[in-house]
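Chain A, query sequence.
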Amino acid sequence: MSIDDATPAEWDATRKDRYYDNRDPREVPYAPDPVNKPQHYRVGGEIECIDYIYQQLGSGVKDYILGNVHKYLHRHRFKGQALEDLKKAQWYLSKLIMEEEQGG
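Chain A, predicted structure.
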């Protein structure tokens, strides 16, 4: 199945298994969130970049995720957004842990 053939219900089901959301559950669900749901990573407002990367890389996605953990840990001291970058590293690390738990 291609990423282009997925129905909205299939996307929702996929997201439940893949996304770690480190936001406080009391937050407004549609508040801007540069860590868990960055708007600039969405294609056409529906497909998230990480889903496209999963489709393109298959099992190689774990290396991509690990690279992002390293990237955000490295740059958190230099870019002026230390807390946001550490949260992004945590988000990717949680995804990597889920991949391992799911045998990915």
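The chain has one domain: 3-101. The beta strands are 42-43, 47-48.
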